[in-house]
Amino acid sequence: MRRPVITARAAATFEPVGRSVATARAFVRDTLQGWGCADIVDDAVVLTSELVTNAVVHAGTAADVLCLRNDDGVRISVADRYPEREIPLQNAGQVVVHPDREGGRGLLLCGALATRWGVEYTAAQKHVWFQLDLPERPAGTRSAGPALPVAALPVAETRVRVAVIQIDRGGCISFWNEDAQDLFAYDPEQVIGKPLTDFAAWPHTPGTGTGIVEALQLSRWEGSYGIRGSDGRVVPVYASHLRVRDADGEASTVCLLVRDHERAILQSPQRTPAPDAASQAGPSEGRLADPFEVFIGSPAPDDLDGLLQRTVERARDMLDGDAAYLLLATDDETELEVRASTGLPSARQRFARVPVEAGSGRYGSARMPAVHEDLTAVPGAVPLLSGTGMRSVVTVPLKVEGRLTGSLGVAAEGAGRYTNEEALRLQFAADRIALAVERARLTELEKLRRGSLSFLVEASDLLAGTLDRDQTLALMAQMTVPTLATWCAVYTVADQTSEPELSYVLHEDEDRIDGLKTLLMKVDPPEPVPTPGARVWTAPGDAAHDAALRTSMRSLGLGNAARPSTGPGATLATASAVGGETVVLPLVARNRVIGMLTLGKPTEEHFRQEILELAEDLSRRAALALDNARLYSERTAISQSLQRSLLPPEQPAIPGVEVEVIYRAAGEGNEVGGDFYDIFPIRDGAYGFAIGDVCGTGPEAAAVTGLARHALRLLAREGFGGPAVLERLNAAILDEGARSRFLTLLYGELWPQADGSAVLKVVCAGHPLPLRLRQDGTVEPAAEPQPLLGVMDDLELYEQTVSLDPGDVLLCVTDGVTERREGTRMLGDDGLTDLLTTCTGLTAGAVAARVLRAVERFAAEPASDDMAILAMRIPEAPAD
């Protein structure tokens, strides 16, 4: 005889107490359901109940339950610790015991229900086992529902379309059938090879929920989400995912999708609740099964969204309704937020909020059970159902310790469907699930808060890392899209008298940005109100709706204007992108509104309260960062303007002399430092030039630079010679007192001559000596060193006369050139002299460029000192 092959095993031990019977029944039921053996679950549960009752109640010992799945069916063994107890047997020599006798009934049931059964003894245990074979089932009869009248069947389109999409192990689409093309208006070549996440509108909240990437990795998954069509609209779908592998072991996921209102086509039949526990319990067990488990099913979903969705589906089925919804209260219990629905346009209603207090247009059935027999007689009694076609509704509150935590409602399309009896039934179920819902809500809230804290910490780090205004605006938008919103616009306000200006626009779909920006430019900006919190802004949605309507009419030839060149698609897509809820948050910094952060959702979507609170926290941080960037930009502009004023104006053209200047200020953002230069006309035929170095760098040194440059020009044009000019400048520096700094300066006056040469008179006050390069390549100092300025009161300076012949070069530099270092090496005066000997025949510009290149290449690190290079060359006369 063929020995059955064991393919699965499950075991558990139950204590000798009455409640163990119900626990053992649940264990067997869940095990067999998990193995897909639903056809024999009822018989297995009945037999297990009787055998465990015999063990834990009558024998008074613990019961060991072992479930084995084989290729024929399931074998279940129940063992107790009382092997001496007599076992009633049926044979010719004994009287058959009565079926109602207290003991021994389990074995009679085994004989009646099991395919095979038996009893085995060991030294310490007695095993009673039974085998239930799975019935032979031809293809197509795995499960079936009851026969229903045509009017009760779910509604579907005339031509039902089931989109088949296959996703490879990298999350990209590898197959796209014709029904998918019809449903979402994408050709296969538009989507194949692209990630499914580019098209899926997955409900996502930071810190909570399962994402689409995780769902695609599960062996099997069912649920609702959305697919963005080619027109930008989200098509709500119900999906069934199955993960498979091919013959080579390559894994992929097959996704079947239908429209959400046709979910009955794909949705797995809900498992029917277990029979009443009282009918299965032994005489000594009077406890009923857990009402929560009976209503929700086992196992209960771990996540809040799954629990709420199963709750509304079970509530709808329990009262035979057409729709059901569940709302959760906000922290202050003043509003209710839609969190789950079935039979309603969930994409439009999800996270919508309604007030709790009774009154016109308010949700008046929150705190007490209520039945509305005909909503057409009381319009607005349940705003959530307006325009849905529902006429009768029963609503009950969810309360925990007397505190309102939510509301559960079931609605029907017919009038007069519900009475107080249905309200009591629904309230009984709501009382059983309220605590579980509140516990799951608090768990989700804690996850959300942890995720929000992490999000805000990262946002703060990013915002603090830049002082550039444009980069701050971009960061603000990129942090909100798509984490908090589908699109974002940032308005800035220059001052209290200025109108808000649209500064940045971002959409999660880059193709929508231009259309969105064009739309917002045509809409009056929101008012810069400093009131904290988010406020709804309807202008973009209204403008988008009007634009889409006009475009549609023109495309149909109903308008007077010509059809737009872009066609209707762009406008309709833009309208869909901004057609949902739009909110505005003020950007307030230092008690002034400096802008507005605008967040938007696509058509018929709403923000949840937690997201708005997170956005408000982000807006406060972003406002301060934006204002800091503004202040930094303003002060930088002022600093650069002042620094540019210290630089000499455009240098004059000196007849017969080539002049080249290269200037580098040390420090980021500095245009002027402690080094300076100047070239200026003194009078007809005479020109002054100077190159100097103030002690130190930065703004303090730049202040002395400005004093020196302006004093030189003024004194030289008053007719003072070189020594007199520097002596008076020395006195002016000393007059600065504690702010004074010593200064090295090379000052000279230049007279171009008619024969092509030039005469120079120079004074070198503590500055690196100017170098003269002759045509034959020799280099020599062109002046002698004298005392620097800003140290002694009485200076006796003298000037020296230098003549430059055609082809000669005069090179003047600051110590930022000669003191260029790398480790212990320094360029020095000798190094500069050697470099200048290689510059014979070069123009003044080429000489200055070669010196700069040599300084930069001398060390790997950038220069840390200011640097100025002034080269003057007398060009050679052209050959005859």
From TrEMBL:
Keywords for this protein: Hydrolase
InterPro entries for this protein: Bact_Sigma-Reg, GAF, GAF-like_dom_sf, HATPase_C_sf, HATPase_dom, PAS, PAS-like_dom_sf, PAS_fold
Family annotation (Gene3D superfamilies): 3.30.450.40, Histidine kinase-like ATPase, C-terminal domain, PAS domain, PPM-type phosphatase domain
Coiled-coil parts of chain: none
Cross-referenced SUPFAM superfamilies: GAF domain-like (SSF55781), PP2C-like (SSF81606), PYP-like sensor domain (PAS domain) (SSF55785)
A Pfam family hit: PAS
Keyword presence, Hydrolase: yes
Domain called PAS: residue spans: 164-194
Stated name of the protein: SpoIIE family protein phosphatase
Organism this protein belongs to: Streptomyces mooreae
